[in-house]
Design brief:
By secondary structure, this protein is of the alpha+beta class. Helix content is 21%, strand content 39%.
Length: 238
């Protein structure tokens, strides 16, 4: 009797297990749990600068499973949804939000995904000025950089091509050249956050020589002034 009950219980258990397996939805086996991106995702191609910024146009193409994905739609920022038919390019500086979704062969529309794209291809601008302090034998250089996209990262000052000072944002971007050399040139290079750079105008060796010629000791200037007066006014020497 006990053996008969045990056999019946075993048979019932096997039947229940088989029934449980048979009622699992087929759609779930076709779309197992996991990231949807493996079925459809964008591939971005371009020159990457610093801090995740692209410093070139960005080519966008979608990689997808052709056995699952029938149609792909995408949009950029607040634009209209566009059916994807092939790679496209984003050519301008800016912040972009790329959204996309796909429809599978059963007609199901899957929820959108999104990614961000940052592009800055434009070098920063810089204006600068100098203040010559002849008595103290120094020149004060002040740079005023601007960048309308990724922002300023740093400003570098050079003397004869050798880096003298690197000043990180937000500045102030001031460098003092002391003492004033007789020959050489001063250059300024500005970097934005994306990694673009721009060289500002520089002071040539001729200009520095002119400044140096003005930077004579006061006593020497007075002596030359007296000599000038004596030569042009003979009565002073009598």
């Amino acid at each position: 009797m006990r053996k008969t009950l045990l056999k019946k219980s075993l048979v019932c258990g096997i039947i229940a297990l088989l029934v449980g397996i048979s009622i699992v939805p087929i759609a779930e086996s076709s779309f197992p749990n996991g990231p949807k991106e493996r079925y459809c995702y964008p591939r971005l191609e371009g020159n990457i600068g610093n801090h995740g910024w692209y410093i070139s146009p960005v080519n966008v193409r979608f990689v997808y499973d052709p056995d699952v994905v029938e149609t792909i739609f995408y949009k950029i920022n607040t634009g209209q949804w566009i059916q994807y038919t092939g790679p496209f390019r984003i050519n301008h500086d800016g912040y972009y939000r790329l959204e996309w979704y796909f429809i599978d062969f059963s007609g199901e529309q899957h929820k959108p995904n999104a990614t961000s794209i940052k592009i800055d291809m434009t070098p920063p601008m810089v204006t600068w000025y100098k203040q010559v302090v002849i008595i103290e034998n120094r020149i004060v250089y002040t740079a005023c950089p601007t960048d309308n996209m990724s922002g300023i990262d740093c400003v570098e000052f050079y003397l004869n091509g050798v880096l003298q000072k690197n000043i990180a944002a937000p500045g102030p971007y001031v460098w003092v050249l002391h003492p004033i050399p007789r020959h050489g040139w001063v250059g300024i290079r500005t970097y934005d956050v994306a990694g673009n750079n721009m060289d500002g105008p520089y002071v040539s060796s001729q200009q520095i020589s002119q400044i140096q010629s003005q930077n004579r000791p006061i006593s020497q200037q007075i002596n030359q002034l007296l000599l000038h007066l004596i030569m042009h006014h003979p009565l002073i020497g009598k």
